[in-house]
Amino acid sequence: MIGFIKFRREKISGKSLDTFLDERVFQPLAMADTGFWARPEQRARLTRVYATTPAGLTPRELETVPFTERPALIEGAVGLLSTVPDYVRFSQMLLNKGELDGVRLLKAQTVETMTANGLPAAMVQIRAGTGWGLANVNVATDGEYGWDGTAGTIFWIDPAKETVIVLMTQIVPPNPDSVRQRFKTFVKQSIVR
Hints:
The structure is a single chain. By secondary structure, this protein is α+β, with helices and mostly antiparallel strands. The protein is 31% helix and 20% strand. The protein is built from six helices and ten strands, in the order ααββαββααββββββα. The chain has helices at residues 2-13, 17-26, 84-95, 108-114, 121-126, 179-190, and strands at residues 49-53, 56-60, 99-100, 103-104, 130-133, 137-140, 145-148, 154-158, 163-167, 171-172. The strands form three sheets. Strands 5-6-7-8-9 form a five-stranded antiparallel sheet, sandwiched between helices. It has a three-stranded mixed sheet with strand order 2-1-10, with no helix packed on it. Strand 1 (49-53) and strand 2 (56-60) form a beta hairpin.
């Protein structure tokens, strides 16, 4: 399905996915450090991915294509590089229902549709209270939503508390010792309202 959407987007826009996202999302949101590969001036800031082993943390390669080269296949579901500040900007745009710093990327109704649970109640119970929204968004029954990546990148948005939480750990498996939940709890407990 993602391949079809990518194909349709490129056919409709006449631009490759990376060019389209750069022009329509990353530049308008001032996300200067987000893309599908690291430019030469960004390479020194690339982090490694680590695996947890009995001996401790060990460097691990997730991809066969280095993140310093343009990948042959650029797809919408995997492969973006970013930074915490860029992720916060993107998340803030979603929290603001599609707008940030006077730039509107999405209609408010689009964000509401993306972040509404699409699973039946029985499936939400199986997934420990988490539903699923469009664009692969995790939707919690308390109204929070977010997304998580293979190597530990995750963001949560809580519209009721007007908060955005971003965590980038770069570790496999992505949630050792429930670090995601512990981090989220710590941040929420530290917020004074």
